[in-house]
Design goal:
48% helix; Nucleotidyltransferase, domain 5; Actin; ATPase_NBD; 180 residues; two-stranded parallel sheet; disordered N terminus; 10 helices; mainly alpha
C-alpha cells in the first residue's frame, strides 16, 4: 500500500512510480477564460477543424490529463468569479471511475492544493461528490440523459437530420443549451 506525501488516504494496488508517470505527462491547458472560448471571427472551417474528434485526440495523444487538472481547468473557464466559487463548492463526479476507497477525499485534497490562492480564501468548503444518495454512480449520466430526453422542453433543442445536413455545426451552436 503506497501513500502520497501530504495525503492521509491510500491508493490500493497503485505503485508510486505508476502514479508519478501519470503526473509527469500531464497537459497544460492554459488558465485564462479566453483560452476556453473560440473567437467569433473564426471561419466555419476553423471551427469544424477545431471541434473534430481527430484533432482533439491527436492533441492529447500519449499524454494523460489528471482529473483534478481537468476539473480545475473547467472551473477556470467560467466567466465570473461568483460562478467559479459555486463550482468549487460543489463538484459532482459521475461514472464508475472513482468507486475506489478514499477516492472522494483524494480528489478533494488534490483540488484544494492546486486551487488558485485567491479562491482558497473565498471558498469555504470544496465538496466533491462521487456517490450521490440512493444512486449508482455508474448510471447517473444515463439516467440524466433519459430524463432530459423525456422532457417536453428539450424537444425544441433536437436537431433533425435535414437541419444538420443543411446547416451543420451552426445549427448545434444555435440549439445548444449551453454557451460554447
Amino acid at each position: 500500500m503506497t501513500k502520497l506525501s501530504g495525503f492521509d488516504g491510500d491508493l490500493r494496488g497503485q505503485s508510486a512510480s505508476g502514479v508519478e508517470n501519470v503526473y509527469h505527462s500531464e497537459v497544460d491547458l492554459g488558465s485564462s477564460h479566453s483560452d476556453c472560448i473560440i473567437g467569433g471571427n473564426e471561419s466555419e472551417e476553423m471551427l469544424t477543424t477545431h471541434m473534430s474528434r481527430k484533432t482533439a485526440v491527436s492533441q492529447f495523444e500519449g499524454k494523460a490529463l489528471g482529473l483534478d487538472k481537468a476539473i480545475l481547468h473547467s472551473i477556470d473557464c467560467c466567466a465570473s468569479d461568483d460562478t467559479k466559487k459555486k463550482m468549487y463548492s460543489s463538484i459532482l463526479v459521475v461514472g464508475g471511475g472513482l468507486m475506489f476507497h478514499k477516492a472522494q477525499e483524494f480528489l478533494q485534497h488534490r483540488i484544494l492544493n492546486k486551487m488558485p490562492p485567491s479562491f482558497r480564501r473565498v471558498v469555504e468548503n470544496v465538496e466533491v461528490i462521487t456517490r450521490p444518495k440512493d444512486m449508482d454512480p455508474r448510471l447517473i449520466a444515463w439516467k440524466g440523459g433519459a430524463v432530459l430526453a423525456c422532457l417536453d422542453t428539450t424537444q425544441e433543442l433536437w436537431i433533425y437530420q435535414q437541419e444538420w445536413q443543411r446547416f451543420g455545426v451552426r445549427m448545434l451552436r444555435e440549439r445548444a443549451a449551453f454557451v460554447w
